[in-house]
Write a structure and sequence with these properties.
By secondary structure, the protein is an alpha/beta fold. Helices cover about 45% and strands about 15% of the residues.
């Protein structure tokens, strides 16, 4: 997952039926209710400021650094959350912009003796690496209690390593969505598709109306892995998905061939992609979104695939979510619709009263509610009120995430070692970019994916 970050995981057991139900709920755009869920007040033995639902200690004069691969509106909105923590505690918090892969960035900071107090890690694999390198510190009792009160067991488990809790999944993503320009669909007479075959029909209908169907962010490798994961999960099923995520089956497996063949039905049609394959490989994620919703009823593309966080980028255009910019679930390729999740976890690198307090705050509904109101954000915290989300689309997506409980599949590439699943210009990101460039070379793509995966899993990094 990544938005400007990526997203993440270890693994949690999943059941498909609940996932499918959640997927259907996620995109019923008429749902817009809000509940006033509230968590119980937290307890702390230290002198504290008790505004909100969580109790925080006084930290006057103390300073913290928080590192994340977040830019633009995402970074700005998170800084608003940090400002509230400063107001309540008296601490001073500095946001440190990190580069991908964040594990390498942290390694250089730690080698220089200047690690941040907390890092927002976008992969369970990255959390494990931080623990293995003895960088990460376990959550203390206050943060742990807040996490257990507000999160389902599944979201707690993906932040654990060796049975100990290291991560607070502050941010989540529903990565099984396709956003579309409503004016283009209306002009073309196109309908929201429910199956992959219907998606191809819709694409042709849009193309016949004079608009290129898809915008693909090929310059960033991570959206390509998300495309693959949705097709693979729906087509091969959750058991195979888990096996491939853990490299218990090889990338040369026939199920991978089938998924790549399916993807090529879109990736292999130059006329279906804004700028063709070469143009897509030069299109970064933010531009893939904005070019779909600028240009009136003649934009560069009609549809763009990615998660709920797309709304941040839509907000940079004049399009209104729910009116000009609409969304439907990623279509069913096999027997069930896919629901792929991602997220970013807060992990403590310098154990202190201040760092533990910030982790506690980030595990609370208070912090998540602040960012939810600003838009383009989704929290797995079950005690964030639905009414905090600023529009009907976002409220519905958030409700579906909470309704799924422990029944979700985490982003496959985020579960892999970083060198395979989370590094620009390497591993799966690069291999799928090469496949987008030449979608006829399915066997060659499988062979390269397996070679890179085998090396990464063998080294564990």
């Amino acid at each position: 997952m990544r938005s400007t970050s990526s997203t993440n995981r270890t693994r949690t057991t999943v059941r498909t039926a609940a996932v499918v139900a959640a997927g259907a709920l996620a995109l019923s755009l008429t749902a817009c209710g809000g509940s006033d869920n509230k968590s119980d007040s937290g307890k702390s033995s230290t002198p504290s400021e008790s505004t909100g639902t969580v109790t925080l200690p006084k930290l006057n004069g103390q300073s913290l650094e928080v590192a994340a691969v977040w830019t633009g509106a995402e970074q700005k909105n998170f800084k608003t959350v940090l400002a509230e923590f400063e107001k309540r505690t008296g601490a001073k918090v500095t946001f440190v912009p990190a580069q991908d892969p964040i594990i390498n960035f942290l390694g250089s900071k730690i080698a220089g003796g200047q690690p941040p107090d907390i890092a927002m890690l976008p992969q369970p694999g990255a959390i494990k690496q931080a623990v293995d390198k003895k960088w990460a510190k376990p959550l203390g009792p206050e943060a742990l209690a807040e996490l257990q009160k507000n999160y389902s067991q599944g979201w707690q488990d993906i932040g654990k390593v060796g049975g100990k809790q290291y991560g607070v999944y502050y941010k989540a993503a529903n990565k099984s969505l396709i956003w579309y320009n409503a004016k283009v669909f209306a002009n073309a007479g196109a309908k929201e598709p429910k199956t992959w075959q219907e998606l191809l029909t819709t694409a042709q209908t849009v193309y016949d109306s004079g608009v290129t169907p898809f915008s693909i962010a090929g310059a960033d490798g991570w959206p390509l892995t998300d495309w693959f994961e949705n097709v693979y999960l729906s087509q091969a099923g959750p058991e195979k998905y888990d096996e491939l995520a853990q490299h218990k089956i090889k990338w040369t497996d026939p199920s991978v061939k089938e998924a790549l063949t399916t993807l090529a039905q879109i990736w292999g049609k130059k006329a279906y992609i804004a700028g063709g394959q070469n143009g897509a490989l030069q299109t970064e994620f933010p531009a893939s979104v904005t070019q779909t919703f600028t240009g009136g009823d003649q934009p560069k593309s009609a549809m763009v695939y990615e998660g709920d966080f797309v709304q941040v980028n839509i907000g940079e255009t004049k399009a209104k979510v729910g009116t000009d910019a609409k969304v439907f679930p990623f279509p069913t390729v096999g027997s069930t619709a896919p629901v792929v999740s991602g997220g970013d976890a807060a992990v403590i690198l310098k154990d202190s009263k201040a760092a533990q307090a910030l982790a506690t705050f980030l595990a609370s509904p208070d912090a998540a509610t602040i960012q939810a109101k600003l838009g383009g954000y989704l929290s797995p915290n079950k005690n964030v009120p639905d009414s905090a989300y600023p529009n009907a689309v976002q409220r519905t997506i958030a409700k579906s995430l909470i309704a799924a409980g422990d029944d979700f599949r985490f982003d496959m590439s985020d579960q892999a070692p970083q060198s395979f699943g989370g590094t620009p210009g390497k591993g799966e990101w690069k291999d799928l970019q090469d496949f987008l460039k030449n979608p006829t070379d399915i066997a060659g793509t499988q062979a390269q994916l397996e070679k890179d995966a085998a090396a990464a899993y063998a080294s564990g990094s």
